[in-house]
Automatic annotation (TrEMBL):
InterPro entries: Aldolase_TIM, DUS-like_FMN-bd, DusA, tRNA_hU_synthase_CS. This is tRNA dihydrouridine synthase. It comes from the Eukaryota. PROSITE patterns: UPF0034 (PS01136). Gene3D superfamilies: 1.20.120.1460, Aldolase class I. Residues 28-307 form the DUS-like FMN-binding domain. Keywords: Flavoprotein, FMN, NADP, Oxidoreductase, RNA-binding, tRNA processing, tRNA-binding.
Length: 403
């Protein structure tokens, strides 16, 4: 049996009695304005097994709206979205514990993890509200939060998403390891590492934080080597399933990580990332969608059904489709046409507040079909099967830019 010191780290020469396993080798990162209930529903038509994260939900928002958790802005979901990881933001252990208990109770078995956000560097999150990446400045505080989350949700794994460190705390390996050890001492056994430093300077944008600090993927593998009783997911500039698979194998003489997490690539090219994930990374016998057309038709039925019950502006129903045809000829033309029509509808209905005007408009499926026709997307693009390549479109597009 392995022996541990007071920090929760293995003593020199100690080893884990059994290598840990992690059920989800592939996941999609929590992204504000992207991974809401509607995007997750569409994603699930392409992959049944990929772990999907919610958008980050702030603890106080849940606790103050405990009577309306089913709202789109909170924990609204469909059972078919499982497995789902709920990401929480906050810095108060008791409030986060209350919110986590609400999540587990409301999601039931669909929620397979509660994830604590210790990596978001945005000014609103980290500077104004002092959580997200700001928490990396105080590993002992995070240890207390993790302890409370586990105490309140003993049957649901508690995980932590974090960066290498920050420009204020440092981001060398010793800093990262010390942060992970603190949460590990509280009982956390799975960590998601966005392998970049978080720059907390208010002049540094969230997009800059996703692209400018150097990516150091080796660190995730070093953590897997040095903390063998934990599991680790690598996040950062993974653009394809091939990129993900590379980290799920030995990496530069270091052991593999246990999971790969994609972010913006899943938003800009969901078909390429998700349509073959089940067979490529989960070993499934087949993938759920035969073609993009199947995904589109299923989603349009869903959108028409959900439209009458929307509790927010209807543009949330159209956003998941913006990049379904990413990489195909005329995909931008389709997206622009759809976005323009959604904007016009919003003006006519005062963003959904004019119920009488909204009732006179055609259903979402008609709007999307009109945009498809105007966008002149080819039958080949519509009927693209999992794993089939789109026609070349010139230079490769960066993951952080639209096509």
């Amino acid at each position: 049996m392995a022996s541990f010191d007071d920090s929760g780290a293995p003593r020199d020469g100690a080893s884990s009695s059994a290598a840990p396993s992690y059920a989800y080798p592939f996941s999609v990162a929590p992204m504000m304005g992207v991974t809401d209930r509607h995007w997750r529903w569409m994603a699930r038509q392409m992959s049944r097994k990929t772990l999907l994260y919610t958008e980050m939900v702030v603890d106080s928002a849940l606790n103050h709206n405990a009577h309306n958790l089913g709202g789109t802005q909170f924990l609204g979901h469909d059972a078919c979205e499982a497995p789902v990881a709920v990401q929480l933001g906050g810095n108060d252990a008791r409030a986060l514990g209350d919110a986590a208990a609400l999540c587990v109770d409301y999601f039931g078995d669909s929620c397979v993890e509660i994830n604590l956000n210790c990596g978001c560097p945005s000014n609103v999150v980290a500077a104004r509200n002092e959580f997200g990446a700001r928490l990396m400045l105080d590993p002992e505080k995070v240890r207390g939060i993790v302890h409370e989350l586990i105490r309140r949700c003993p049957s649901t794994p508690v995980t932590v998403k974090h960066r290498l460190g920050t420009d204020l705390s440092g981001s060398d390996y010793a800093t990262t390891l010390a942060f992970v050890r603190a949460s590990r001492a509280a009982g956390c056994r799975h960590f998601v590492l966005h392998a970049r430093e978080a720059v907390l300077d208010k002049k540094f944008s969230t997009q800059q934080n996703r692209t400018i600090p150097p990516l150091k993927p080796d660190v995730a593998h070093m953590l897997a080597r040095d903390l063998p009783d934990c599991t680790f997911a690598m996040n950062g500039m993974l653009r394809s399933l091939e990129d993900c698979a590379a980290h799920l194998s030995e990496w530069k003489g270091l052991p593999p990580v246990h999971s790969a997490m994609v972010g913006r690539a899943a938003w800009y090219q969901p078909w390429d990332l998700l349509a073959t994930a089940d067979t490529a990374l989960y070993g499934a016998a087949s993938d759920p969608a035969a073609s993009r057309r199947d995904v589109l038709e299923a989603y349009l039925d869903y959108a028409d059904e959900r439209h009458a019950a929307l509790d927010v502006a209807e543009d949330c129903l159209y956003r998941p489709l913006f990049y379904l045809f990413g990489g195909e000829q005329n995909s931008k033309k389709f997206r622009v046409r759809l976005a323009d029509e959604v904007t016009r509808r919003a003006r006519r209905t005062n963003r959904g507040r004019d119920a009488a005007a909204a009732a006179e408009l055609p259903p979402p499926s008609d709007v999307v079909r009109d945009a498809l026709a105007a966008g002149d997307l080819s039958a080949a693009a519509m009927d693209r099967r999992p794993g089939e390549s789109a026609e070349p479109q010139g230079r490769p597009r960066r993951v952080d830019e639209p096509d």
